[in-house]
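Lay summary. Proteins are chains of building blocks that fold into shapes, and those shapes determine what they do. In this project we predict the shape from the chain. Here is one chain we studied, written as its sequence of building blocks.
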Amino acid sequence: MIFGLLEIVQLIALYHAGLMGVVILLHPRLRGLGLLCIGFALHMGFNLGISTDIIPSQFDITSAFGLLYGPFFYMFVRDLCFEQQQTRWLDGAHTLPALLIAIIRPEYPIQQIIGFPSLAIYIFLAIMALRQHREQTAEIRSDDDRVSLRWVELALVCFSTLALLDITRELLFQAQNQINDDLFLGSVLIGVLLLLSFMAMRALEHEKRHGAIPEPLAKKSRTNSNRLIIDPEVQNQFLKIDHLIREDELWREARLSLVDVSKRSGLKPRIVSTAINSESGQSFSGYINSIRVEAVNTLMSDPANASRTVIELAYEAGFNSKSAFNRIYRNKTGNTPTEAFSAHKGS
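And here is the predicted shape, written in a compact code that computers can read:
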């Protein structure tokens, strides 16, 4: 049996994606990604089986696999964002449309009529989960930049682009245009395999950082900092929190979280968050980083630190990333740290 270029690509994808899927499924919070890899590997296996006549044509269910990618990608994003959300047996309901298509095997374009809106809905749900994660990490983590899921946003863009390319390929093929479908499909499959490899590598790395949001806080609504009524109780709570953070220099802890402040202050996390939002007009992350920027400016103004580097001062103040420090400092002051330090030395 002689394999063409497309069959070789599918065979590599079957082996690589299948192996990644098995490894990733061992991590409970990454089961969505594991299922995505396994689903892709099975798709490649059926494609090979049909093209080589190993699998009879009456068992061709390849068109059903397209209905699995959207749900699995969404489950991966959801599980990565929220601690309490892990893929369970009930999530099998997301696969029912694909199972139905596999059983009935309707004629073209029924699968596409069902599949396109389904994919769009799951992409939208993934976008909303990422948006919620981005907003809420600023409320509960001072190092929100460290656990950012911007790489997942990039993966989502790539996923959507590859899906659009595959849809375009199929439409052109169905219209019987003169295109090299094998070359087009092979390119898309290589793109998917590279994307899955990137996602697996970054997801395993991200899991160590514990970047998921505790579910109760993920459902919290942000307090309106521009309210007209002043609440003395909230003011007193904020004064207690602010005194604790400044007096005990909690801001020096690079991974300081809302839960840490809650435990030290004896106040519930939601109360701490509400007090900081209301009285400082900032998120938890913004408030802590404002104090850190103040601390860096104090260190810069001390002649004893003239021979030190800016990043040394930043780390002493609780920052743990050079890029995050530079961005935050400029946003808070309008100047770069280097410019500010030079100005302090010259004064």
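What the prediction tells us: The chain has a mean pLDDT of 87.
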